[in-house]
Amino acid sequence: MHNPVFKVWDQQGKCMTQYQEQACYKITVRYPNTDRTLEFIGMDRGSCIMQAEVAKQEGDTVMLMETEEAVTLLKKEKI
């Protein structure tokens, strides 16, 4: 699959910036014991879940996944 590339000329900075679409994954996790809801974005579902595990605080015994979806982000690089 070919990801479209967008190029933008910055007149003030005199430089060209390239943006390329990148498919990612996003989950929303609720920690009921500490009354927090956090969003995590990663390259795949597993990396999002690992981030959610790391974000657990003392007292968080349960993580509830509320949403999960594929998202498209723009990756930026100067050219």
Q: How would you describe this protein?
A:
This protein is mainly β and 79 residues long. Helix content is 13%, strand content 57%. The two termini are 23 Å apart. The protein has one helix spanning 45-54; strands at 5-10, 15-31, 36-42, 64-78. Strands 1, 2, 3 and 4 form a four-stranded antiparallel sheet that branches. The chain contains one helix and four strands.
Produce a short descriptive summary.
This protein is mostly beta strands and 79 residues long.
Mind sketching the topology for me?
Layout: E1 5-10, E2 15-31, E3 36-42, H1 45-54, E4 64-78
Antiparallel strand pairs: 1-2, 2-3, 2-4
N-to-C series of helices and strands: EEEHE
| Contiguous runs where pLDDT drops below 50 for at least 5 residues | none
Distance between the termini: 23 Å
- Please state the structural category: mainly beta
Number of strand elements: 4
Helix content: 10-25%
Annotation keywords:
79 residues; mainly beta; four-stranded antiparallel β-sheet; 1 helix; 4 strands; 13% helix; 57% strand; elongated
